[in-house]
Each structure stands twice: as structure tokens, then as C-alpha cells.
Amino acid sequence: MRGRRGTGRGHFIRYALAAGMCTAVVTLMCGAASAANLFDGMESRADVHNDYRGARAHLFRYVPRYTSGLHGSSAWVMLHDVAYGSYGALAQVGWARAGWWDDGVYYFYEYADAGGHDPGPQIIGAVPNPLDYGTEDLFTVQYVSGGHIEYRINGVTRHTSGYNWTPSQAQWYGEIIVASDQTPGDTNHKVVFEDIKEYSSDTWYRLSPVGRMHNSTTYGTYSNTSSDFRIWDTRYSSEGGL
User: Fold this and answer.
1) How far apart are CA 24 and CA 13, in angstroms?
2) Which is nearest to 108 in space by CA: 92, 128, 89?
3) Is 229 in a helix, a strand, or coil?
4) Which of 165, 168, 195, 223 has minimal CB crowding within 10 Å?
5) What one-character-per-residue DSSP string does 111-172 give?
6) pLDDT by residue (tens digit) across 97-121?
7) What's the pTM value of the predicted model, to 2 decimals?
8) Alpha helices, DSSP H only, in the chain?
């Protein structure tokens, strides 16, 4: 999972690399996947706050489908700066189902520094009862005093990292690698992002998705109100199995 380039967007799933799957045989496949990641969701812009220091939201749990071992589907919140490296520096936390892990749904974090070092998404732990639709988790990524970033799930810090860059935006997205993967959600079980906030000048500000939504998937779509948004894949009416 990383970030949408240009205006951002984190690409969780470059990262068969993280699982050691990009051997000489499949390097081109991995490279193609990293360039093709697709997104549904929203991002903040400079007209809101210029001092990005945190992003958070409640996200519904879900079990998406994916099409092969190098593919996957995820939902996350992120701080991002596209000024560094091919994809930009980032700090990201959320949930994912990916073919290079086993077949479960996992909480993960990912960090890329200004030098382009990114070991890929790292498992934090299994998502409990991911098929319990309507259950949500609060994901937070935040710069804190002492010079580090905290990655929190439901208010509990699950990882910390240092940083050597300054965020230029915050993002809230569902992400897939290729069009055939399932955008998180289906027509009967949409993945909701709510209580969307960014942290600036020591204050959490609630953001409206209105005018900030983006879609680059083939089969995914979204709807939004002034306070939340939901994403889903139009091909499906049920969750993927485990």
C-alpha cells in the first residue's frame, strides 16, 4: 500500500517485494503491479490546512477478494509527501488482505522515508471477526512530540517510527493492485469511512469528503455525505470467504 502519485495516494501493495516475492522471474510483474495500483477515497488539500501532522478515521471491517498471489485489497489512512522518491515518503495504517500473506485479513502499517527506504507493509496482527460487517476500527497515524510517528488502532499505539520528512497531505483510501481485484465493499456491504479527521496545529479537525473524493478503479465506486463516505465494488453483492 503506498500513495496516489501526483496528488498522493499510498500504494500498499507494491509489496510482494516485502514478502521476498520479486525474484528475477517476477520482477517485471511486481514492477507493473506497483505502477498500476488503483484507488477509491479522499485526500486533504492545501486549502484546508498546510500543517499536516495526523490523519484518522473509523473504517468498517470487510473481507475482499483478490485475483492471484501478487495481488490484494486494502483500506487505510495515511500521511504522505510526494516530494521524495518514486512514490513519496509515507506513514500508513489500516487493514489488508494480500496474496503473499496467508488468506486472512490483517492490520498493517507501512513507512517509507525520504531516502526511498520502504520495507513494505508490515503485519500488526489479525483483524478479529472480519466478516462481522458493521464493526469498525479507528485508525490513526500521527506525528508526536519526541520526533516519531505513532500508528494506532482503536486508540492503542501498535508501532512507532522515526521520520525525516514533512507531510504535504493526508489520505483516506481503499486500494487494489489491478482492476480484477475487488475494491473493498460490495453492493450490500459498503466499506464506510467516518469521523474523518486531520491533525494540524495541535487540533483534530473534522473534514468533509465533499469535493475531495477520487476514483481510479474500473469497478469500484463511492458515495458520500458531508461527514462520511463509503466505497464498494459494483460486481459483487457479498463478501469474499475466508
Assistant:
1) 19
2) 92
3) strand
4) 223
5) EE-TT------EEEEEPSSTTSTT-EEEEEEEEETTTEEEEEETTEEEEEE--SS---EEEE
6) 998 888 899 999 999 998 888 888 9
7) 0.88
8) 27-36
